[in-house]
Amino acid sequence: MELSVIILSYNVRPYVWQCIDSVLAATQGIKAEVILVDNASEDGTIELIGEDFPQVKLLPNTENIGFAKAYNQAVNQAQGAYLCILNPDTVVGEDVFKSILKQIKGQDHFGAVGTRFIDGRGCFLPECKRVVPTPLGSLRKLLGLGGQKGVYYQDDLGPEQQGPVSILAGAFLFLKKSDYRSIGGLDEHYFMFGEDIDFSYKLLKKGKTNYYFGQQTILHYKGESTQKNRRYLERFYGAMVHFYKTHFSDSAVKVFAVSVLAQMLIWWRSFWPKGNDQIVNTPDVVVWVSQGTAPSDFLAGWLRKKALSINDVDFRRQTPEVLLKSALKNALVVFDRSSLSYGQIIELMAQGSLHGQAFRIWHQDKSLLIGSDSSDAQGEALILGSE
User: Fold this and answer.
1) Are 244 and 135 in contact (CB under 8 A)?
2) Which long-range contacts (CB under 8 A, 24 or more apart) does 261-269 make?
């Protein structure tokens, strides 16, 4: 077996369905397996995936054991020489795995490999390539002080460039299984958050080179299974403190300062008013993008009336080539997955971000309309009926 793609899910059924659909398209021609480890979802994830994708290996847990422990559990059963650790709210293009394998096979110096990330609006996510966060850098960031360039993100490498980086994001980590095991896998002290930073840093200390391929792009909606409540804050800041205590014990005073400030921020942010998670925006035009397939009357009617709350919205049909040239602004772009590849969709989204477009992907076979208008808010996944 050449590759094991491991996906972790927790109550994100529509997103993980789309993620697996894209992974299966991307593993065509590769000796690969797909493993879904589920942390006790209550939304029927296991039943849906088992029915629609019988080729996927399912590892259902009876409780939420966290990110690191669940991924380690799956790696222990993985058969591939290479691993791809993947978040459930991601979408990959058809050639991403083949391209990475072609470049790193036989190159023993590679540690983990990452790609360019875009969010549901097609906007670049800078956290896909980061520097090693130091206690002093985190103190400056937490305090909101100036001079943040190069403190968190690796800004010296452009989004579409490639080269060595220090830290990669755990939403997509590609590496040899032997390297994963050589550092003991993901540190299970991290329930969620921080395990990718710790993992990347341990690979560096092992003498490996983590690498960023900016020519390959994946879609990462972000935060679909995370509610930003007090528990979220405790885990987020707690992971930061644990990382520094593990790797920067010689900076005890700075680590202590980070710990105190983190506790203060947990307390303070717990009282912040909770905003509306849904981003409401009425586009000026709806664009159906397909290679010839017309939207059903029901979908077209729903887009006009339900999603937009207006009846006279301009509704257009375009091919991908025409959309790239039209540069429509304030448009809701709906992609027909039945006639477009995931690679095409991701490319069009990245281009559309320049014009402030919003996006949805339509899966005719599931009557599923899915997308996200902000990387800081939960997205929209709707199962549309026929009436």
Assistant:
1) yes
2) 261/139, 261/142, 261/143, 262/142, 262/237, 262/238, 263/237, 265/142, 265/233, 265/237, 266/230, 266/233, 266/234, 266/237, 269/233
Distance of CA 66 to the CA centre of its chain: 17
Query: CB-based contacts of 160: which residues, under 8 Å, 6+ apart?
Result: 116, 214, 215
Cα 68 from Cα 179, distance rounded (Å): 16
Neighbours of 386 (CB within 10 A): 8
CATH placement of domain 285-383: 3.40.1010
Residue type (1 letter), 339: S
79/85 Cα distance (integer angstroms): 14
Amino acid code (one letter) for 232: Y
d(CA 252, CA 373): 41
List the pLDDT tens digit at each of the 387 positions of the chain.
999 999 999 999 999 999 999 999 999 999 999 999 999 999 999 999 999 999 999 999 999 998 899 999 999 999 999 999 999 999 999 999 999 999 999 888 999 999 999 999 999 999 999 888 765 555 555 555 545 555 678 889 999 999 999 989 999 999 999 999 999 999 877 656 668 888 998 999 999 999 999 999 999 997 554 455 455 554 555 555 555 656 555 555 445 455 555 554 544 455 554 544 444 567 888 899 999 888 888 888 777 765 555 445 567 889 999 988 888 888 899 999 999 999 999 999 999 998 989 999 999 989 999 999 877 666 778 776 544
Q: In one letter, which amino acid is 360?
A: R
Place of tokens 């990959």: 92
Give the integer Cα–Cα distance in Å for 141 and 146: 8
Pick the CATH number of 3-220 from 3.40.1410.10, 3.90.550.10, 3.40.50.2300, 3.40.50.2000: 3.90.550.10
Q: Kindly report the pTM of this predicted structure.
A: 0.85
For residue 119, give the nearest of 16, 217, 263 by alpha carbon: 217
What token pair was written down for 321? 């080539």
